[in-house]
# Entry
Amino acid sequence: MQMAASRWSDTMDLRNCYAFTRIVFLRYLAFIYAVAFLVAYTQNEGLIGSDGLTPAKPWMDMVYTRSCGSDRWRCFTSIPTLFWYMVELPGDVKDPDAAAASAAAAAAAAPFYAVPVVSLDVALEAVALAGLALSVLVLVLGAANVPIMALLWVLYTSIVNVGQVWYGFGWESQLLETGFLAIWLCPWLRLLPRVQPPSQPSPPSRTVVAWGYRWLLFRIMIGAGLIKIRGDQCWRDLTCMDYHYQTQPVPNPLSPYFHAMPPWWHRVETMGNHVVELLLPWLLLLGRDARLWGGCFQVLFQGILICSGNLSFLNWLTVAPAIWCFDDAALLPLFSAHAKAVVFREAEDQVRPAAAAEAASKGGTNQMDDDGKGATAAGPQSLRRRNGSSGSISSSSGGGGGGGGGGSVAAPTKGTSPSSS
# Structure
């Protein structure tokens, strides 16, 4: 297995692959989701529960009767949340027999199965715990499918849409946008990671989503920079950081040390903020080298903000789209040899039949191993040549691949290891 990982990492042009990027991203996003659902589980009862500061139930009752004409489906299409079908609303029939008939009619009329009615507090806990469990599953596996990611998005949307003022912050909508794009990264049903065979182009959906995340990060940073420049005068005269650490919400333990820096350093900080938020985001839209540098700057910037401030999971979440500035060639060193082998083994299994068929169609004689199986193609290049009289298949590997060195690597047969020519 490790031999396969070495062979593929030396011959695949990993600059065009995002299999490992997807694994890193899904685990990172699952971590953010888990934190968000854990916060919801521990705080929602005191914020929007029956005895909370701003109970969601009276608000839902008001929307149900005044805005939706006592129609659950109309409420759901206006303010999408599962809680419309989970809690009792004004006008619900109290008589047990009539209630059963009403529930049956509602289930028949609804476009999906009607969830049994429970108290709002129980519903809030159930949704938060379900989201937390799914998040931990994705975090452990490093993989997901469309139903799992879609359900995570639906569960958190359900909480946000009844959260009122407590869920009106920017990071809530940003998490929903980030999570929605992640749905289209995954296979429809398959749960395990899949690496695209090198003989085939990357799936269009993954390329579109990758650019979607880069565009999301670009919008976030440019928007933050323009708000500052067009807002308070202190951002224009470079004095904002003189007071920032004192006035930010809930300073963290390192904030006093940042605040104690000399005035000239605070000017540098403010100017650096403008550079990172207004100039460097344009690197995200350029070629690979510029995009790699742009991603590094954005991750470093968010790391500094995490160390110096406390804005819930906003800065952690902003790192997520920056991950898509890096392809497999950049992220491969983060993985162990075993992890690489697991992913590359599937690519080898997928490409072996295609390589054998290609060699046969060109009139070549496949070198046969002891089991009668054709030799495995070693690399991503479509051009293969006969290597002397032995009939072994080799591929020429260019020096530009992010994951490996130059020269050509001959495909090993059973019981041999790859050798560079």
Q: What stands out?
A: The chain is about 55% helix and 5% strand. The mean pLDDT is 78.
